[in-house]
Write a structure and sequence with these properties.
This protein is of the alpha+beta class. Helix content is about 60%, strand content about 5%.
Amino acid sequence: MTKTFKRIADRLVNSPRRLWGISFLLFVLLGSAWSVSTPMGGSPDEYAHLVRAAAVARGQLNGTEVMVKHQVAGMDGRFAETGVQLPEWYRELSTRHTCYAFQQWQSADCAPALGSSEKIVEVTTAAGRYNPLYYTLVGWPSRIVSGEPGLYLMRLASAVFCAALLASAVVAAAEWRRRGIVIAGLLAALTPTTLYMGGVVNPSGPEIAAGVLVWSAALPMFMAPDRALLNRRLLRLAVGGLVLINIRPLGLVWFAGAVACALLLTQRSAIRMVVRTRATWVCAAVLAASTGVAMAWSMAHPDNSVIEIPDWFTPLNAARLTFDHSLIFIHQMIGDFGWLDTPAPAITWLLWPAAIILLILLALCFGRPRQALVVIAIMVALIAVPVAAQSIQASKLGMVWQGRYLLPFMVGLPMTAAAVAALRVPSGGLPWRRLIGWMALTLTVANVSAFLWTLRRNAVGDGGSFFIHPAHWSPPGTWLLWLLVYGIGATGLAVIALAGDRAPAPPVTPRPPADGERSVRSVGHRPMSPVG
């Protein structure tokens, strides 16, 4: 059975087009499983993004500012939302989750049915200031299909968009010579939270997927330079950068951080090759123009929200509180679903970090000092970036940080560690394919367990039947069907990691001299000058 999987994996990775197509299909399966199995409105702030997407699809890029009373982490304030004109039933999205969110014992069957009134009224959204690019891509189904089916189609559109980005990252990982361990590092970066956010309408989904694509293009471009692959790597970097920069203002920081880390790991010849390529300057110009447009949009849409910050909440205290929440943020990056009220099971939190720690130890033990320092720097950023961000924004926003905000950058930790291991760890001495196979199997079990645990919470509550029977709430098509779909997608990705290494490029042999052709060195003197 194992040999059969290996043959399938080798056949897939030897054809980039076939690999992209199969990977795309697998990610669509994973994303659509999350799309359908998550109760409508059952993900963080999704109702605000659904309203924003529907408004953008109707040409409403802007709206009227409406100050709404709001509470952030126990602090009262007035949140600047945007009023748009939509059918009346969109108003109901903001309250559908309230009967079960933060009440883990309650299944999602208590949510009221969605209304059908098409009367045009003002609906407010907290996402009205966000860049409209993502919402343009996912909002169009709301113009074709009304009601809850249209909302599910918007989720599926988001899942397809993220799947395209992630499939390109898989192809990039398969271009390494020791591709098995690099693909395993990519799988470790695709945490259940990453796949979950890709299956709902939330800009965090494509933001994280774009971060994965940027890292997958930047690392080999500088660590394993190949002129034949340079243009496609530049294209991936440009596409990932365009999406990342145009999602949120922080996207520019994540993009710059990924490129900076790749540059610190570069080979000497790589920079010269990249700089001397015309496509580099074309991509740089496109990214620069895109950055200018994104910054102009952000400056034209400031956040006028007002939070009543208590006197004790100083930047120093905000930094301390954020540091104390570091483990919570790490858990959220691995798997915390719903309204951050549905944590993944213990098996996911144990197995997923174990796989990442293994990659980190390989990189630290075998990597050069400079490579080890980059891996350590990314680990330090895991704690330092949220602390710095919260302390700077404390007086304006309060305690708003969530683990998924850092994921577009932190996906680079297992990917960088795997890239260093692929270059530095000796190919002999360890049963590498067996090790990678066990790692892929471990991640698959952890991934499917997180999906099943979330299904159970939504169907019967966390105190209900372990076997989800009888199910009080069930997604369209039954929960068992989508568990099977998710298992197929996760297993398919694990099979790809079993691919063998690429054969090294054949050495270039000098052309033998033709008949009558004499070698200058063979005669032992320099050729005569034309002048004599």
